[in-house]
Every structure is written in structure tokens, then in C-alpha cells.
Design brief:
The structure holds three protein chains of three kinds. Chain A is built from six helices and 23 strands. In chain A, the strands form six sheets. Chain A has a seven-stranded mixed β-sheet with strand order 1-3-2-6-10-11-15, sandwiched between helices. A four-stranded antiparallel β-sheet of chain A has the order 19-18-21-22, with no helix packed on it. Chain A has a three-stranded antiparallel β-sheet with strand order 7-8-9. By secondary structure, chain A is of the alpha+beta class. Chain B is α/β, with parallel strands linked by helices. Chain B has a six-stranded parallel β-sheet with strand order 2-1-6-7-8-9, sandwiched between helices. A two-stranded antiparallel sheet of chain B has the order 4-5. Chain B folds into two domains: 2-55 and 206-382, 3-Layer(aba) Sandwich (Rossmann fold); 72-202, no CATH class. By secondary structure, chain C is an alpha+beta fold. Chain C folds into four domains: 2-81, Immunoglobulin-like (Sandwich); 91-207, no CATH class; 224-376, Serine Threonine Protein Phosphatase 5, Tetratricopeptide repeat (Alpha Horseshoe); 393-522, no CATH class. In chain C, strand 14 and strand 15 form a beta hairpin. The radius of gyration of chain C is 26 Å and the shape is globular. Chain C starts with a strand and ends in a 5-residue tail after the last strand.
Chain lengths: 371, 383, 522
């Protein structure tokens, strides 16, 4: 099976991504094989509709990745639907059984084994967790009744073993639930790692792990749509997590991802969804460059009584004016970083019109116009 | 739509009280149709501090082998709801009950067990109550669904029940089990781990100590009667309840009905309040549950009791003038519940089977999802 | 033209000497300055070009405070207001807390809380006691006292725990709220606030007198690693520097633990002690030995050893951590799980496997949202202790009970046990020479100690050999029941070396060896 994106150059620092999205679980409830060969522990899990869409969404963005120090070398896309259909047309892709994932992972790790490379791992599908570790559930879960958790990925062991991979920057995005089913309360079932080993050389790596849910909580998605975490993640990678450490372009910083993602999630859903970051890091890495960094702006007025009668207008560096008619709630909008102006206009004359300009930075800016 | 819940005896403030209120409020919210009647606001006037105080802490109650241990509440639940059942060969109790008895009993048992064994989860009471409402509606409409034959374990039974009863327009999914299933799993496990051989033995065991329940009833009733005061000079308990009724009446819009749900002695207090202490508050529906109102009226212990009734012209006491509909719920087994239809006119008596245990029944009405199901049906009939 | 900028971040009620991370951006969004700023104090940023700047201060709670300033003169001052702090009484805690997103369903009640105090004694037993609450503040230096405070704000109820200045290094504190247990890091002069947190769980916010530790820990938990690095420099600067530490009369254990976690999680590769080297190893060994009440120290030391691929020491360290109990910090619990798992996957060690299962059982329902470890108590142990203890079979431990004793080194040789550790190094202070001889049955293997001591000025040592988890103490003569006769323990050799022989009964023998010198009595 060919790669989703292939611009591999040997012996060169590049960014290599492995993207997995699993909707279909044949051995779980309402799955194709559930009637004849159900999983021994279905754990209340069923079929999903969002992961393939979410994985497609991030894969579509990844091909636009711009990192001069580690240009995009490859994107390996695995979908349970075995068919990609998105912004880049339609083509067959590999499936998401444990064996599929493990084989692809082996090749991916070897590709990433270069000091300057950036390794990106993205998983969207069912997941479960105990207080100590997360298990990622692959499509073939439930296949073997004698070893019920054979087709489940032991993420922590894999993560620690990845320290042996030379890539100094490794990003792990896990969009899955992290609740603990009762089977795990009394018995420590282990999944299988994709990689094992104690790190032989302590190099230090920037290896944050970003989860789409908190420990014991649930990752959520609108039915059939991109999940909240993935949607926020892509927006963060596009520009909200941008930083400008020098005179060059805006760069997406791994140290700013969690905050950017959470601030964006707050805007797209009121459900209890939050991103958690763990993992060991020794530096901040910049994984993408952009000229289009986004700032999540909240525009408000003081005194408070002014807000419900204010016509608000905002302009950013793109000279793109946005407006809002009077409303009692603060205005949540997105502007491009840089010189911006905001004004409040009161046609009834209850308050004096006012206008302010200033420069704003990602990820978030709370702008209070004093009227 | 305001709902005033007047509690009965033996209610004292504690962490358990807070949890009980949260749970009960959530069930009211889930089962009373808000769309038509506006939002549901529940008022819980607490009069327990003004109730009986026992100087020796109920030392007069003879002690016996009634020590409770961790599994007792769950065993009691099974004994009350599905006595004599045992798990099947694979250890599935709920499946066994579903196949031999009914899904409604499974729901009462499991959601009741969840209240006792919530596990480490912090699932919101609203989610639990809503899922109970959907499940009971589904189970009441489809007795013995065909898919029951395909299910092989308790987990699968509950998961399937939740999915079948779920509203078809769920807008979000979780990348794991549903939150409700997650929360119920602990209860399923807790039920699975019970020593079922002893379940039969607890049929006769009382919830808590029977003497203690009676003692508190007698105590609270005495204190109430002696301290209730007179119209215009309200005693402390009466004042608390009247305040809540007034608050509730003020909070509603003109189209929303005021509902009063009163349990046990709370029914007596509510009756006194509506007839004598606050006779101008219009109450659309009064639901008395496990209450002794008719008994009190027979003894002429209400402020408004008329000693000349019954007589040839008026064989029954009138229902309170400011109450449009009155439903009185009792259980034949509940030793402290009384019917009202023979003493009052214009009241609808409804039987509800709570439990085979005489005093356990008294305190269990509001723990059964099926009770709320019936409650919403009764309310619907009054409209 | 350039000017100086003085920035004051106003945070009323913040603890004195608290610094947080601040960044300054120019009009094009480029970061021109980043560093620590002390709250309520002026931080001078020199030589900025005239123009407009955006100042952003990152609070440990995850909030940002921003302000704009125009530099047009030689000196300009800007004042940034902190985010609103809902708690009037504990503003300092507000700056650390994430604001809850939904109202808490639970409420703290004084009669629902119990404080447990566990003392790790010489006899290797944990003695747990429940402590009473007081409602008045006291200056009792050894106290760990709870002042229950009912401030029903929008978020619920708070309780305030104050730990005195002389709490011992071998003490652990756990707070029980309902069936949930929360670790309270027992550092001297610590304030702890328990509140209802986001998920309805309870949050324990620890305010240590070393503010940098509080701040860095919160940054780590918020995932704000850049800010953690900004303030982490202060932690490393003081804690890592032995000379600096010596000037401080009491080594602050919480600060030490947080420094260790900071190094492991976020310390930049260009700063010391990266790459992980002898300095971190020795420092973490020191932390492990000095604070027996903190399993965290052993966890950090274990990882330092793992990084050097010193599997033997890592094994010893992780088992010591489990023996001591549960790490006080959630980060530590995670690292302990990971460390045990790494070893379990690569060695066939039964003790490690047992430790992992114990940890899985005891910490099964730990919360990841609280900064200190929070677990669901198991029913069986709730009456007597927050959790059931772990007893390994084979563990060589040492404890530095008396900090004034010089380091000495001893080696344990066990050449005949194939699967056993070949040799380990044990350090402790030791006394004047005496004759000791130990025999425990006569079976396959022999083990020998060789001690070398630096300073002969102390009294006789009590050398404890604890077998099968039973404490045996003996001077000369005497035997103990249990099947293994012990005659005398003789340390033989010259002034600088002693040798003790004893025999490990068989592969399953449990031997815990402690070397605890006792000062000669008056």
C-alpha cells in the first residue's frame, strides 16, 4: 500500500506522520462479526462515526505542513474504512487491525530515526485507561477470546521505548476515551506494545503526549463529524499555538499546544472536553511555520452596562472587518496576530463611541474597551 | 414548573441528605415534562432540625442482630425488588431477572444499586435520571423484547437496553462507552460480586432497624402536633413548609402548575399547610406518598378537621379547596401508608408495589425509577 | 532610542517572593524578553526600543494577564492586573487554581474529614494514627493541624491545613475526605487548602514556603512548560547547588521533589543537569535518603538510575518507594508506575512484579487532576491506614537517619545467587569498631558485608538484620525465633574496615538490611 504522502529523502531530517482513525470494530456491538464472534469483553463499546473523519481532517492539514528544518517527508494514513476521501481526492488506504498498525509503525519508526526529524503519531478511536496507562483499541480487538486484550496497543511501553528513536521531537496525539472499565479493576490485562526497550542512550527528546480527554473522562465528537479535540488541535497547529521567538516567521510551538487547544475547545463546545498533556520534554520545538497566526479574542466593554447596546467592530492585519450587533454577552472572535483595532459604536448615544488599536498575540487576548 | 417536596420522618441533614436530594431532584427533572410546563424547579423545605430529638439517642430501641455490612444495601435491594432470584450459570443476575421477571425490575434494581454503589465516578445525577426515564419508558412499552434472547451477559443486557431506549437523535458520541454505561458498570460489578445465597435470608431483614423507624415516626409526629401552632402563629415546621409553598407559588408563571409531593408525615404537614396555614396558595396537584392523612383525619388531628364529619349529608371530608387534583399513593405492604378514598372525597388512591418488606417499603418509594415513571403518568392524567 | 521598562504584576494577597513567568512582545509579535517577574514588585527590563509592546504574565492557574505599554521615554512603568481572585481569604491559592467549569456537586464537611499521620519507624513498620482537628491556630511547631474554614463562595467549601515547622522527615500525611485519600506533602511551614475542584473531586493545593516550587509544579500540571522552564531555573539554582543548600538550615523536601520532577519532565537540554549526569544522580540519591517519609525521592532516584542504565539501583529505588508508600505527588505516582513497568518488562524480578500489582491495586482509582496523589481508599485498609503496605522480599535499603554522620560505604557481596544482584553499595554512617558476626542458617549462598568507615568518633552501632519482615535487633549474643539462629554480629577488621558474614537461607529468603548507627548514650 502506498503512503498517503510520500516525499521521503533518506538521511535527511524530515517530518513523518502516522495517522490512524478507527470507526469500525467488527467484534464489538453492532459490528459485522458481533453476532457470530463477539469480543469477550465488549465493555459497552460500539461502532463510531467520527474517527475516520477526524483522521482525514488532520491528514489533509498535515500535507500543508511547512517546517524548513524538517520538511514533511511522509504521511502514513490508516483508516478502518480502507478508503480515504477528503480534500485530496479519494484513494485506498491500509486498514487498522493490530497487525496493520504494527507493520506500519515499524516502517514509520525507521523513517523517523534521524536526529533532526519530527515524528508525529495520531490515533483516534476507542481507548481505555487505568490510572497508570492508556490502551488504544484497534479494529481487530476481540478477535481472540483466549487472549482478549491481544489487539490492544500498550501505549506507555511504546512511548518509553520510542526514546531509542533518534527523532528529537516526537508528538503524540491520542484522541480517545480514558475511562477504566471494570475488567481492569481487578486484573491487570496488558495490551501489546508496538515497540519495546529501555532507552540505551539518554538523549533527551521533546515528546509531549496530548490526550483528547482527562484521565477517567471521555473524548467526544459530534456524530459523523470531526471530534472536538481534533478540530481544536488542527486549529492550534494552523496558528493558535504560534510563537515568534525571533525575527522570522511565526512558528507553532510544542510548549503552547495544550493551552491553545483548550482555549479553542472552550469555543466549539460547552461539553466537558479538555486536553491533557503529559510526557517528557527537554526543549520547545517548532514544528510548523505560518504567516497566519490566529488569536482567539474576547471583546468586552466597561462599564458592563455598555455591552448590551454596543455595535462592535474589529479589524485585523488582513484589514478584514468583522461586526456584531448589540448583545449582552462578550464577543468571541478570531483575529490575525499583529496590529488590530476594535471599536464600540453606540447609535443611541447612551455611551460615547470608542476605538482602540493595539497589537495582539496568540493564543488568547481579552480585550476590554473602556467606554 | 415548581415542585415542592415535603419530606417525611427521619430526615436529618448529612452528606447523604445532599446526595439524596440531588438524586431525587434529577429524577423529577427527568420525568416531569418540562417542555410543556416550562422548567422544573424543585423546592426542598427541610424541617428535620425541628423534628424529634432523642435524649439517649434511641437507646430505648432494643438492639439485635441488625448490623449492616457493605453488601447489605444491595442484598436488600434484590430482596425487595426481585426476591428469590439468583444469577444464571454464568453469574448474570440481571439477565436472569430480565428473562424470568421483567425489565422494569432490572431497571429498579440496577439504578437503585447505582445509588448505593456509584463507584469512583462522578456522573451527574441528571444523566442517571434521564437514562432511567428513557429505560423505564422503553421497558413499559415493550415487554419481553426479542433481542433479550441474543444477549449473553449483564453487561450486554444493559448496553443493549441503553442503546434501544436512547433517543434516536443523539448528537454526540464518545470514543469509549457511554458515560451512563460507565457509571452503571460499577453497580453491575457490585451486583455480580454479591454472595447470592444469602440474598434469600435478608427478605425479612428490615432496612435499618424497624423499631428505630417507628420511633422516629412517633417522635416526629408528636413533635409536629405539639409544636405546629395556629393559623397566624405558625410553628417552626409549618413555617418552613409554608415559606417554601409561597416561594414556589411566586416563582411560577401563570400557566405553570404547582405540584406538591409529600412523603409520610410530610403529607400531614402539607395537608395542614394547605388547609389551614396557607389556604390561599393554589396547588394544582397534591401527591401524597406513603402518608397517614386519612388516619389523622379519622382521629380529627388536623387544624381544619371538622368533628361533625362524617354525617348523613357529608359522608367524607372534603379535599382541600385550593387543591385541584389529589393523588394518594400507598403500598399495601407499607405499614405506615394509608388509603384516603374512604375518608376524603375527590381523592384518587393509587397502589404502588414497592417492596415485600413492611417498613423498607416506607422509605423506598423515591428510590425506584419506576415510581417516577408512574408519577409522570399520573400527572399527565390530571392535565 | 531605547528605554527602560519597569513592569509590576499586581496580585494582591500573593505570597511574598513569588515569581511567575512573563513575556514581552513587540508590535510585530516577536518575543523580545522572557523571564521571571516577582509579583507585586517591579521587574526592570532594560533597553527596549521605543514603540508599543504587549506584556503577558502567565499565572500558574492557567490564566494570562496581559497589558500594553508604549515606550517613549527613558523610563516607563507598566502595571498589569492579575485575573480576578474569587477567594478573598486565600488569594494566593486562587492564583494556582484552575477555575472550575461547572458547579461542584459536592461539599466538604468537617465531620467528613480525617487526617492520617504515618510514621515510618526504625522497625520498618508504618504507624498510622488519626489526628484530631483543631479550630484555632497554634504555633506548635510539630503540629499538623486542620483549621476548617467554611467559605461558601461560588465554588463550595474550603478547609485549611497548616503544618508546623518541625515536622519530621519520616512522617507522611494523608487527608481522608469521605472515601478518598489525598496526600499532603509533609514539608515544614506548609499551608494546604482543600477545596472542591473541577470534576467534583477535591483539590489539594499545597503552598510551600518556597514559592518557586509551587509555581513550577502548577506550570508542569498545566502543560505550560515554557513558563516552568523560566521559573525552574530558580529551583535548580538553589536546590541543585550543594553549597547553596548547605546555607539553608532545613532542606525543603517539597521543593526538592518538585525540582526532581521538573528536571525529568521539562528541564531544558542546555541547562544543567542535562544531559543526565552524575550530578543529578548523586543529588537524587541524596533526596531519596534524606526524606524517608517521601516515596517521591526514591522514584526520582530510580529514574536517575534508569537513565544511567543502572538497573540494580533503579530496582532498589522503586522498591524502596513502594515500601515507603505512595508518592505524595501525582506526577510521582505516574513515574513510579512507568518505572516499575519498564523494569517488569525487562527483568524477571518477582519483587518488581509484586510491587507493580500492589501499586495497581492500591492506586487504581487515582485522580490525575490533583497535584498531590489522590486515591480511593480500599475498604479493608480504611480502618487502620490509608492503604495497605507493600513488603518486598529482597530489598537492600539504607536510611540516613542522622544527617550529621559522614558518609561511609559498604558493599554487599552475594556471589552465588545467579539471579540476585551481584553487588550493591550501601552507605551510612557507622560507629567505632566492634565485633559482629551474623549467621542465618546454612544454605546455598553466602553474603558478606565490607564496611569502610571514615570517622571513628561515634558509639557502638546497632546493626539490624530484618528477616522475613520481622524486626530483629541484637547486640551481642541472643538468638531469635523463626528458624534462623543468629549468634553474634561481628564487625571485624581494622579501624577502617569491618566485615560481617551472614547467609541468605534460600532464593526466597527475604532480607531487609538496615544500617542504622546509634549515637552512644550519655
Amino acid at each position: 500500500m502506498t503512503l498517503f504522502y510520500d516525499a521521503i529523502e533518506e538521511d535527511r531530517a524530515q517530518t513523518h506522520a502516522l495517522v490512524i482513525g478507527i470507526d469500525d470494530y467488527p467484534h464489538l456491538e453492532e459490528g459485522a462479526l458481533y453476532g457470530s464472534d463477539p469480543a469477550r469483553f465488549p465493555m459497552g463499546l460500539g461502532q463510531l462515526t467520527s474517527p475516520v473523519r477526524s483522521a482525514t481532517h488532520i491528514a489533509d492539514w498535515l500535507v500543508t505542513l511547512d517546517n524548513p528544518r524538517a520538511p514533511l517527508g511522509s504521511v502514513d494514513l490508516l483508516l478502518s474504512s480502507r478508503m480515504y476521501s477528503g480534500a485530496n481526492g479519494a484513494k485506498p488506504v491500509r486498514g487498522t487491525t493490530f497487525d496493520d498498525i504494527r507493520d506500519t509503525f515499524d516502517l514509520w519508526v525507521r523513517r523517523c530515526d534521524h536526529a533532526g526529524s519530527v515524528a508525529i503519531f495520531y490515533f483516534c478511536g476507542h481507548g481505555i485507561s487505568t490510572s497508570s496507562r492508556t490502551l488504544l483499541i484497534t479494529e481487530s480487538y476481540g478477535r481472540n477470546r483466549n487472549v482478549p486484550f491481544e489487539d490492544v496497543i500498550d501505549f506507555q511501553t511504546t512511548y518509553h521505548a520510542m526514546e531509542n528513536c533518534a527523532a528529537a521531537t516526537q508528538l503524540y496525539f491520542l484522541d480517545c476515551c480514558r475511562n477504566t472499565p471494570p475488567q481492569f479493576w481487578s486484573v491487570d490485562y496488558t495490551g501489546r506494545p508496538l515497540l519495546t526497550g529501555i532507552p540505551l542512550v539518554k538523549r533527551g527528546r521533546d515528546a509531549p503526549v496530548l490526550f483528547g480527554s482527562l484521565q477517567g473522562q471521555f473524548a467526544r465528537a459530534p456524530v459523523g463529524e470531526v471530534s472536538f479535540f481534533t478540530a481544536a488541535l488542527v486549529e492550534a497547529l494552523k496558528g493558535i499555538a504560534a510563537d515568534r521567538p525571533d525575527n522570522g516567521r511565526w512558528k507553532i510551538s510544542t510548549s503552547k499546544l495544550q493551552n491553545a487547544i483548550n482555549k479553542k475547545i472552550e469555543r466549539i463546545t460547552t461539553l466537558d472536553v479538555r486536553c491533557e498533556q503529559t510526557g517528557d520534554t527537554v526543549k520547545t520545538s517548532y514544528v510548523h511555520e505560518t504567516d497566519d497566526p490566529t488569536v482567539l479574542v474576547t471583546l468586552d466593554c466597561r462599564p458592563e452596562a455598555a455591552l448590551p447596546c454596543a455595535h462592535l467592530r474589529a479589524t485585523d492585519a488582513r484589514a478584514r472587518p468583522l461586526q456584531r450587533p448589540p448583545d449582552p454577552a462578550p464577543w468571541h472572535l478570531e483575529l490575525k496576530a499583529g496590529e488590530c483595532s476594535a471599536e464600540a459604536h453606540f447609535p443611541t448615544g447612551d455611551f460615547a463611541d470608542c476605538r482602540e488599536s493595539c497589537s495582539i498575540n496568540p493564543p488568547h487576548f481579552y480585550w476590554t474597551l473602556t467606554v | 414548573m415548581p415542585v415542592v417536596f415535603v419530606h417525611g420522618v427521619n430526615v436529618r441533614r448529612s452528606a447523604l441528605y445532599d446526595q439524596t436530594i440531588a438524586r431525587r431532584d434529577a429524577y423529577f427533572h427527568a420525568h416531569l415534562p418540562p417542555a410543556v410546563l416550562g422548567g422544573v424547579d424543585v423546592f426542598n423545605p427541610y424541617w428535620g432540625d425541628s423534628g424529634a430529638k432523642f435524649s439517649w439517642n434511641l437507646a430505648s430501641v432494643p438492639s439485635g442482630p441488625y448490623e449492616t455490612f457493605g453488601t447489605a444495601p444491595l442484598l436488600q435491594l434484590i430482596a425487595e425488588i426481585a426476591p428469590g432470584t439468583a444469577p444464571d450459570d454464568a453469574g448474570n443476575l440481571l439477565l436472569s431477572i430480565a428473562r424470568k421477571r421483567s425489565l422494569l425490575e432490572v431497571i429498579d434494581l440496577l439504578w437503585g444499586a447505582q445509588a448505593h454503589a456509584p463507584g469512583p465516578f462522578d456522573t451527574s445525577p441528571a444523566l442517571i435520571a434521564e437514562s432511567a426515564q428513557r429505560a423505564t419508558t422503553y421497558a413499559a412499552a415493550t415487554s419481553g423484547p426479542a433481542w433479550l434472547a441474543d444477549v449473553r451477559s449483564d453487561d450486554q443486557l444493559i448496553s443493549r437496553l441503553l442503546r434501544e431506549s436512547a433517543q434516536t437523535c443523539e448528537t454526540t458520541e464518545t470514543f469509549g462507552p457511554s458515560e451512563v454505561f460507565n457509571a452503571l458498570q460499577w453497580a453491575i460489578e457490585a451486583l455480580r460480586q454479591l454472595p447470592h445465597e444469602t440474598a434469600a435470608a435478608t427478605v425479612s431483614a428490615l432496612r435499618g432497624r424497624g423499631n428505630a423507624i417507628l420511633a422516629r415516626f412517633i417522635g416526629d409526629a408528636c413533635v409536629y402536633v405539639t409544636t405546629r401552632g395556629r393559623p397566624g402563629e405558625h410553628g417552626p415546621i409549618v413555617q418552613i413548609v409554608v415559606d417554601a409553598l409561597q416561594q414556589a407559588a411566586q416563582s411560577r408563571t401563570s400557566r405553570q402548575p404547582l405540584v406538591v409531593v409529600a412523603h409520610s408525615l410530610g403529607g400531614i404537614i402539607a395537608y395542614d399547610a394547605l388547609t389551614s396555614f396557607a389556604p390561599t396558595i393554589p396547588c394544582d396537584v397534591l401527591i401524597t406518598v406513603g402518608s397517614q392523612i386519612a388516619l389523622f383525619e379519622e382521629m380529627k388531628q388536623f387544624v381544619a378537621s371538622d368533628p361533625k364529619i362524617p354525617n348523613k349529608v357529608q359522608p367524607r371530608a372534603p379535599k382541600p379547596a385550593n387543591v385541584k387534583h389529589w393523588i394518594n399513593v400507598f403500598d399495601l405492604v407499607d405499614a405506615l401508608s394509608y388509603s384516603a378514598g374512604n375518608v376524603f372525597s375527590d381523592v384518587k388512591d393509587v397502589k404502588f408495589n414497592v417492596s415485600p418488606s413492611p417498613l423498607a417499603a416506607h422509605v423506598s418509594y423515591f428510590e425506584r425509577p419506576t415510581f417516577y415513571q408512574c408519577l409522570s403518568a399520573w400527572l399527565a392524567k390530571t392535565r | 532610542m531605547r528605554g527602560k521598562l519597569g513592569v509590576v504584576v499586581n496580585a494582591p494577597g500573593a505570597a511574598p517572593d513569588t515569581s511567575i513567568a512573563m513575556e514581552i512582545f513587540d508590535a510585530r509579535g516577536k518575543r523580545v524578553w522572557s523571564g521571571p517577574t516577582r509579583l507585586n514588585d517591579s521587574t526592570v527590563v532594560g533597553r527596549l526600543r521605543y514603540g508599543e509592546y504587549l506584556i503577558r504574565a502567565h499565572f500558574p492557574s492557567g490564566d494570562d494577564a496581559t497589558g500594553h505599554v508604549q515606550i517613549e521615554d527613558a523610563t516607563t512603568t507598566a502595571t498589569i492586573a492579575s485575573p480576578a481572585a474569587p477567594l478573598a481569604g486565600w488569594r494566593w491559592a486562587s492564583y494556582y487554581w484552575r477555575q472550575p467549569r461547572r458547579p461542584a456537586g459536592r461539599v466538604l464537611a468537617a465531620d467528613g474529614m480525617t487526617l492520617w499521620r504515618g510514621e515510618l519507624s526504625l522497625a520498618s513498620q508504618h504507624r498510622w494514627k488519626r489526628m484530631a482537628f483543631t479550630s484555632k491556630s497554634t504555633d506548635e511547631p510539630r503540629a499538623a493541624q486542620m483549621v476548617y474554614y467554611d467559605e461558601r463562595g461560588q465554588d463550595g467549601v474550603y478547609a485549611h491545613l497548616r503544618i508546623g515547622s518541625e515536622i519530621q522527615t519520616n512522617v507522611q500525611l494523608w487527608l481522608q475526605v469521605g472515601t478518598r485519600f489525598f496526600a499532603i506533602p509533609a514539608s515544614p511551614r506548609t499551608d494546604v487548602v482543600v477545596s472542591v475542584a473541577t470534576a467534583g473531586d477535591f483539590d489539594v493545593t499545597v503552598h510551600n514556603e518556597r514559592s518557586a516550587a509551587n509555581v513550577v509544579l502548577r506550570y508542569l500540571l498545566e502543560g505550560d512548560l515554557e513558563s516552568a522552564r523560566t521559573i525552574g531555573k530558580q529551583l535548580i539554582g538553589r536546590d541543585f547547588n550543594a553549597a547553596e543548600r548547605e546555607r539553608e538550615p532545613n532542606w525543603n523536601p517539597t521543593a526538592a521533589m518538585v525540582t526532581g520532577y521538573y528536571v525529568m519532565r521539562a528541564a531544558p537540554v542546555d541547562d544543567p543537569p542535562w544531559p543526565i549526569d552524575d550530578r543529578f544522580f548523586r543529588w537524587s540519591e541524596d533526596v531519596c535518603d534524606t526524606f524517608p517519609g517521601f516515596p517521591d525521592g526514591a522514584v526520582i532516584f530510580g529514574w536517575a538510575a534508569l537513565r544511567r542504565h543502572d538497573v540494580l539501583r533503579a530496582r532498589e529505588a522503586f522498591l524502596t518507594a513502594c515500601w515507603r508508600g505512595l508518592p505524595a505527588f501525582t506526577l510521582g505516582l505516574r513515574y513510579l508506575f512507568d518505572g516499575l513497568r519498564v523494569l517488569r518488562g525487562t527483568t524477571g524480578d518477582r519483587d518488581i512484579a509484586d510491587a507493580y500489582e500492589w501499586l495497581m491495586d492500591v492506586a487504581r482509582d487515582s485522580s490525575s487532576e490533583t497535584e498531590t496523589t489522590s486515591i480511593e481508599g480500599s475498604r479493608s485498609s480504611q480502618e487502620t491506614a490509608p492503604f495497605r503496605p507493600f513488603r518486598p522480599r529482597r530489598l537492600i535499603r539504607r536510611e540516613k537517619k542522622f544527617p550529621i554522620i559522614d558518609a561511609a560505604s559498604a558493599r554487599l557481596l552475594s556471589p552465588n545467587l545467579e539471579d540476585e544482584l551481584r553487588w550493591l553499595s550501601v552507605s551510612a554512617g557507622l560507629p567505632a569498631p566492634a565485633r559482629w558476626n551474623v549467621e542465618i542458617g546454612e544454605h546455598a549462598a553466602k553474603a558478606a558485608f565490607v564496611f569502610a568507615r571514615d570517622d571513628p568518633s561515634f558509639g557502638p552501632a546497632l546493626f539490624e538484620v530484618i528477616e522475613e519482615l520481622q524486626n530483629t535487633s541484637f547486640a551481642t549474643g541472643g538468638s531469635r525465633a523463626g528458624g534462623y539462629p543468629i549468634d553474634t554480629i561481628a564487625l571485624q577488621g581494622e579501624a577502617r574496615a569491618w566485615r560481617a558474614h551472614f547467609t541468605i537461607a534460600d532464593a526466597d529468603t527475604i532480607v531487609i538490611i538496615r544500617i542504622v548507627p546509634i549515637l552512644a548514650g550519655p
